[in-house]
# Entry
Amino acid sequence: MRRVAIIGVGMTDVGVFEDATPMELGVNAIVDAVNDAGVDKNDIESVVTTPVGYVLDSQKFVAQRMVEYLGIPTRTMAEIDCGGASSLAALRYAAHEVAGGRIDTALVYASHWEFTTGQMLARYAEDTHLVRMANSLYGSYDSRYGVISPMAHYAMCIQRYMLECGVEAEQIAALPVVLRENASKNPRAMFAEQISVEDVLSSKMLSPPVHLLESCPMSHGAAAVVLTSEENASETCERPVVLTGYGEAHDDSHFIPSSGDMSRFPSVQRSAREAYEAALIGSSDVDVAEVYGVFAGVELMCYEELGFFERGQAPAAVEKGRTRAGGDVAINTSGGRLSLGHAPYATPLFEVFEVVSQLRGEAGDRQVPGARVGLVQAEHGMINGSIVFVLEAV
Amino acid sequence: MPGFLSDLEDTAAARFYEELERGRFMTTRCPVCDHTFFPPRIVCPRCLGSELDWVELSGRGTLYAFTQQHHALAHRKPEVVGAVDLEGDVGRIFTVIDAPFEGLEVGTAVKVSFFRSPVFDIMLHKFKPVLSD
# Structure
């Protein structure tokens, strides 16, 4: 198997773009990535993407329409769905194709467009499509009880975590402050205005213990990545970033597990362990990480499952600045899901974009000095499954 | 019955809600594995056997976690919802908690009862703290 390198990345701004279309967002991200890679579009032999949203009227043949639009005949094409982890699953699919040798240059992209919560609530009552989609997301035993987002589920995870580990509300509220500071240095981020712990704790209580400012927005955006073999990359690319480790694990649960702790995410731990072993590193070797945290409390829990901190210790670590640039490990320098913005199908590739920028030394004001080893993690459901990649500058 | 527009993903879910209409809180049990599990299924998740029995649950459980849901489309807002561990290691159920949020505690013993959805014409379950004697 050949080692695989990322030679180009591109992404749009993250925000609420009600007049944008998933096609246009995707095209813009792809053009950025192809130009960044410096390849001819006709060199691309594989196009792998994801669906464009969870609730939006289904768009079919997404990849096929894109290759038609851009005039790229390919040897492999697929649309991969694995919930919030989809675009990392798409990256894994393409990376395996390149590693196996059948494909030399592959394009992975994801474009996410979705109704906002306000639009959904306004339309839900008379729109049978929305009812049907919510039903298909949450199933026979949750949707009838009013569930249209996983917020209540995540809130209960955080309640258990706070109870079991003795974590206080003020400690969780410290994380959004750090993420917002990071986002203020990222021109693509959705939110830039600085906030304080007091602001977080006085923001609206959405689903106790989750406050509005501890919750990710639902955003639109797109990102794209160009891959080739490390050997090809070494000839054509100045600063290739090599995929050195990969891990993936899924529990046999969807949202609430029928048994076991809701305060633990075993799939995150399993996927991270596999990725570290493949890359021959430990968690302490990671310089910069992008973690898929959609609520502040669960983001902290993921830091622990990834092995960056002992159980129950992530909140104190964040308060002490250990997750900032210059700390033990710089986490979510992009601003994370809470402040960069969250467009689920595209989010994992936003994470790849940030880590590649850091490893190339191109992250501007938020650059982590000397970053060499990076990690990206994404999950689906209520963290019922997780994918981790280790990326390294060579 | 399950169908295209329905949220019922199998005939076991359809039977579960039919039993609720009759005031019975039931699930499936695999006699081969001696395994009773919630939610009910058309096959056993341990052995994939399809010869399952329907058994009535005690309706008792322990409140594992809870929160308030503001977008409670089918019910009053905000409402208390929770995850209840059903007695006998049968499984964990997402449900409405029939108690004020303030003062509610994790680990509280709860018991099932039924109510008709004010929006959809279906019977649903809810759990209420059991007063200790």
User: Anything to note?
Assistant: The mean pLDDT of chain A is 94. Chain A touches chain B at residues 117, 121, 124-125, 128, 131-132, 135-136, 138-149, 151-153, 155-157, 159-160, 163, 206-210, 252, 255-259, 262 (CB under 8 Å).
